[in-house]
DNA sequence: CGGGCTCTTGAACTAGCTCAACCGGAGTGG
DNA sequence: CCACTCCGGTTGAGCTAGTTCAAGAGCCCG
């Protein structure tokens, strides 16, 4: 049984039209609402109405799904610049939480869909997410534990500013639920990569990558 | 090592604007090209340019990805009415094949994206696929073999005309590569569901569902 | 009928899980 | 400043679901 911690710090919402928000949107007539969330705060939950899409300004968001017995699958981590929360139905089938203190922009996407340029951005974003999900299907369906962790580290390295130093904002438990493993196995694979000389660890959350080794050992 | 059969029957292409095709599209000025493919014929392959999206007229299509050593993950089966082949990049990261003799409509989607109504349909389709992929992430990451097969049968039942009789167009191997299992495990799970009285088999490809039993045993 | 497929079944093996103990660093309070 | 505690992470030992390897059974189409 995989349960995530229940500690959720309060969310601060600003349901008014800040000038900054409008500026950050694409069309001046589409309201974009800035919101802040504390560590582990829920941004939205399964069953809520899914009127809004979100754009991350800062921080990290995890989007996930739960089975009735508590098993959890994280479908993705979203960082600054990423959109998330686009769902085809009226009600949400997924939940989203802030991994660390996070600022987002909420956009009522039904309104947004009236603008062709916005529509195009939404489509682009949906297609990017689709591709990410499908690559992740390959990971979950066909890769072993070590390959999964390597793929994860490369993905995180790709996103960070420094390709050699990765700062992991999420705990092992989240990594496990993203990679379809247990946190123990994730920990063991970190140890194995360290033994193989592919990474160095400075605490649990900072990873130094040896990209040469990494590139050498896989696709 | 999971290799699919290499038997691919020839594809017949009609690169002209048939009246039917235009009718089946949404705007008369967007060319839709009807194409036919034999069993196991490739519709597109990884590395090709990804200019076209497709709509299935009849038959079944599998979209998949391969690892260098031949491990395969099928991300979805597409049947009449479904769109597939929408990818964000210039070149394809996935491959598509006809599971059975199949007719599709090819649409140059960059053109299509000029029409707002078409854009909206593409977005809708992309969001639908996105949701399907993400549900499938939960299946691959967190469900056991029996749960996976049940989910699969429900999905197939949902799509077929008769909710009690499922005609499976694909072999066990494809089901395995869709569910992240081996074909032997798939076969064993079919046997187990039969023993549990949840299904009856008429040959390997026709499944009679006892929906009461099925509904009783899970979400 | 016969020759490939596809599918099923069996037996042994193993990657990853489960359960359990321990470790270590950051915050807290005496 | 040091002890305590809490939480996240690591490590170990045994177990099991699913894989692998292998042999057979249908079955479709010539």
Kindly list the characteristics that best describe this protein.
homodimer, 219 residues, alpha+beta, five-stranded antiparallel sheet, four-stranded antiparallel sheet, 7 helices, 12 strands, disordered N terminus, DNA-binding
Ranges of chain A with pLDDT <50 over ≥5 residues? 1-25
The whole-angstrom Rg of chain A is: 18 Å
The biggest beta sheet of chain A reads: 5 strands, antiparallel
- Kindly report the greatest chain-chain contact and the residue count on each side: A-B, 40 and 41 residues
Biggest β-sheet: strands ordered side by side in the sheet of chain A:
1-2-9-4-7
Span between termini of chain A: 33 Å
Shape of chain A: globular
Number of helices of chain A: 7
User: Strand portion of chain A, in percent?
Assistant: 25-35%
* Helical content class of chain A: 25-40%
What is the N-to-C succession of helices and strands of chain A?
EHEEEEEEEEHHHEHHEEH
- Tell me the quaternary state: homodimer
Task: Provide structural commentary.
- The structure is a homodimer of 219-residue chains.
- Chain A is globular, with a radius of gyration of 18 Å.
- In chain A, helix 5 (172-179) crosses helix 6.
- Chain A is α+β, with helices and mostly antiparallel strands.
- In chain A, 37% of the residues lie in helices and 26% in strands.
- The two termini of chain A are 33 Å apart.
- Chain A has helices spanning 19-24, 109-112, 116-142, 145-159, 172-179, 183-195, 211-217, and strands spanning 11-13, 32-37, 42-44, 52-58, 60-66, 72-79, 83-84, 95-98, 102-108, 165-167, 199-202, 206-209.
- In chain A, strand 5 and strand 6 form a beta hairpin.
- Chain A has 7 helices and 12 strands.
- The longest helix of chain A is centred in the middle third of the chain and has 27 residues, at 116-142.
- In chain A, strands 1-2-9-4-7 form a 5-stranded antiparallel sheet.
- The model of chain A is unreliable at 1-25 (pLDDT under 50).
- The interface between A and B is large, with 40 and 41 residues.
- The structure holds a DNA duplex (30 and 30 nucleotides).
